[in-house]
Amino acid sequence: MKRLRHCLLVLLAGFALPLPAPAQAALTTTEPVLQLPTFRVEAEAEKDHYIQGPFLPATQGTKINAGKKTTVLDFDSLPRITGNNYRQALSQAPGLILSEETSPLISIGYRGLAPHRAQFTQVLKDGVPLHADQLGYPEAYYAPPLDTVDRIEFTRGGAALMYGPQPGGALNYVTHRPRTDTKLGGSTLHTFGSDGYYSTFSYLDGTTGPLGYYGYYNHRESDGIRTANSDYKLDAFSGRLVLGADTSSRWILTAESYEEEHGEPGGLTFATGTGAVNYRAQRAAPSRLYDRFNLDRQALSLVWERDYSRGTFVGRVWAIDYTRASRRQGGGGFGTLPTGASAGTNTIERQHFDQLGAEARVRLDWGGNGGHVFTAGAQLYHTGSPRTDSRGSTADATTGAVRLQSEREILYLPVFAESLFRFGALSVTPGARIEFIDQSVRELINVSRTTTPLQHRDERVAVPLFGLGAAYDLPAQKAQLYTNVSQSYRPMVYTEAVPNGATTVVNADLEEGRAVQYELGYRAQPVRGLVLDASVFYLEFDNQIGGTTLPNGLTSVANIGRAVHQGTELSVSYDLLARGTAPASGGVRPALNLYVNTLLLDAEFKEGSTRGKTPQYAPAHVVRAGMFYSRGDALKLAFTGTLSADSYADDGNTAQRYVPAYAVWDLTAEWRVPHTPLRLIGGVNNAFDEDYYSRVRPDGIDPAPRRNFYIGAALEF
Asked: Are 481 and 521 in contact (CB under 8 A)?
């Protein structure tokens, strides 16, 4: 810990390093060829009343997006999304694949990379990593309430150089900041829906003098779609203070609290027989009655943003206390009820993550008119993660005898630099990142190890990553060609470093998974209201990790797989009313936007025991389509659909983990009652009552909700 404190002090001291004195508060920018809708960025975030364009700008705060494929999902222009419906939230983001579940947890994959808890995607909130441990245990159990999210930014190739190592791009939630045009404002929204759904979201915000404030409370609960043990409830709080929002120097202090509990009713099966819970006959029945999951997350962060005449500096520190706990009844199989002696016991897992991080990023504009840009940064991140597994003497026990106990620790120091060089219509963006990782895992107790000693592993690695992007403007077409090649990798997670089975041993030669991605694309706005983005990609993911049997009969993990993911992404949207000349009454121009985006994917393992198989959750195509209508802030309507080809939920492509093709449509609406502070929302999810599932767990099929409804009202002031 002394080494950690010293490194943190060094990084924090960098916050105070002198940079050139500001000549102006605003950033120096170069006009893009693509004339996107209004896009204002104040360093790393925006005021929530500014509407985003479909792509991120070439430069944004301390980030360079030029030569990268990006998507901006702006929630201000959409009807209110309630609950956990990420089909709607991600409807305009091609390449992302959902493994849907009815709990508040989310699972998002990318171009055929496994979606479970977004483990191959770097997930951030306002630039802070959201995984339980972004390297040792990269699973995103927490997602911020969508009511407090202004937009989601998704960056594909090159994201590992900017945000972290994962090959599945980077998804960043940008949350609301206080409004600066009011001293006191707020809203309280209450929503009711099918299956006992209830949600309340209330917030207050405003700015007095140089100080802005924003705070919210969200409670959400549901009985779930199963007859038992499918319920959930959560409570989320947050408070934010912003000092100097309208100046060139801003301080942002944020405190958060999130608590959640849900039942895990178990999976179903198409098999019949004793103990089988059949999908066709008992779709709503549980196969587990005593499985529960709890999450507790407390977070504190401090950010300093400073704009200069030729650059920006951002420094942030954060501390996160993160606990996940589960209780699972013993016995049972795929879609079958627990039986036998083990059914009278349970496994109690408790894992704690104590995160401390600091990051400094700088952007410098140089050359004529600030045409060239240089960015650099460093992060220091430490996680301590003790874990204890116990065996309870009853199916619903909360305490038990300790069977496994381990200590895990990671010290992480990445350093990166990227440059943007402009040569007329051509821009070139080379970048590099070096990852320094010190990881240790030690078993303290493992009662099942009777023939092998307690395992431990210490690993220190330095991983270099490189990337190169380029873009070429086509002014006559109001278009741009872009290309990117970049490296990324998959760090070893704790369970890979030290497998905890009774006869498993550490593989001292285990290497990180390596990936390289190539992308070539074309994006344009040839006429007013029309937006196009088409790209082809090739992703090669080597050294994937899986189980192996040793000659002595013991088991271990090894680098066994190489997969290739290749395909095409296409997105088209067109505002049918964009070419009109006269705005509606009140000066607000209505919009009727039709969109379609597709992912065509060919993914296959080329080596290892799964050679010739398709990676899990890698459908041959995913199509999303729909329409959005808005009349300013007075009325918003959306009709969105997701059509997915079939896939498998395991790399071995076993018959019982098959996921059939499905098509799901959602209808949502939001209306402000004229001349009142009242706003009404409503919607129909799965409007055509599709009987489907998109997730199969090791314990069975996880059915998706059938047609369901919700309605709500918000009082604004």
From this structure: yes
Residue type at position 293: F
Q: Which residues pair with 504 in a beta bridge?
A: 555
Look at residue 616 and tell me whether its pLDDT is greater than 50.
yes
Residue type, 594: L
Q: Report which secondary-structure segment, H or E, holds 563.
A: strand 555-575
Query: CA 671 to CA 633: how far, in whole Å?
Result: 8
Q: What is the DSSP letter of 184?
A: S
Hey, how many other C-beta atoms are within 10 angstroms of the C-beta on 676?
A: 9
Written as six digits, the tokens of 183 are 């001293």
| Cα gap 515→530, rounded to integer Å | 34
Task: Please classify residue 264 by burial: count the beta carbons closer than 10 Å to its beta carbon, then call 0-12 exposed, 13-18 middle and 19+ buried.
Answer: buried
Give the chain's mean pLDDT. 90
* Distance of alpha carbon 148 from alpha carbon 589, whole angstroms: 26
Give the H/E segment covering residue 584. Answer: none
The contacts of residue 271 (CB under 8 Å, 6+ apart) are 278, 334, 335, 656
Contact 68, 484 (CB under 8 A): yes
Contact (Cβ atoms closer than 8 angstroms) between residue 324 and residue 365? no
Place of tokens 């408070």: 239
* Per-residue tokens: 646: 């079939």
Q: How many other C-beta atoms can be found within 10 angstroms of the C-beta atom of residue 404?
A: 19
The secondary structure of the chain in percent helix, strand, coil, rounded to multiples of 5, reads 5, 55, 40
Provide the pLDDT confidence category of residue 49 given band limits of 50, 70 and 90.
very low
Instruction: Quickly state the pLDDT bin for 440 (edges 50, 70, 90).
Output: very high
Place of tokens 């943003």: 305
Domains of the chain: 2-716 (2.40.170.20)
Strands 346-366 and 387-392: antiparallel
Token pair, residue 171, equals: 């998804």
Q: Hey, what are 592's tokens?
A: 């009727």
**Are the C-beta atoms of residues 20 and 311 closer than 8 Å to each other?**
yes
510-513: Cβ within 8 A, 24+ apart? 510/545, 510/557, 510/558, 510/559, 511/543, 511/559, 512/461, 512/463, 512/543, 513/167, 513/489, 513/541, 513/542, 513/543, 513/544, 513/545, 513/559
| Amino acid residing at 678 | L
User: Could you tell me the pTM of the whole model?
Assistant: 0.92
- Pairing mode of beta strands 96-98, 70-74: unpaired
b (16+ CB within 10 A) / e for 180-206: eeeeebbbebebebbbebbbebbbbbb
Asked whether the predicted pLDDT for residue 26 surpasses 50, the reply is: no
For residue 585, give every residue at least 6 positions away whose Cβ sits within 8 Å of its Cβ, in sequence order, or none. Answer: none
Q: Looking at this protein, which amino acid is placed at residue 177? A: R
CA-to-CA dists, residue 540 to 111, 363, 521, 567, 603, angstroms: 11, 31, 18, 12, 10
Adjacent-strand bridge partners of 139 = none
667: Cα within 13 Å, side-chain hemisphere:
7
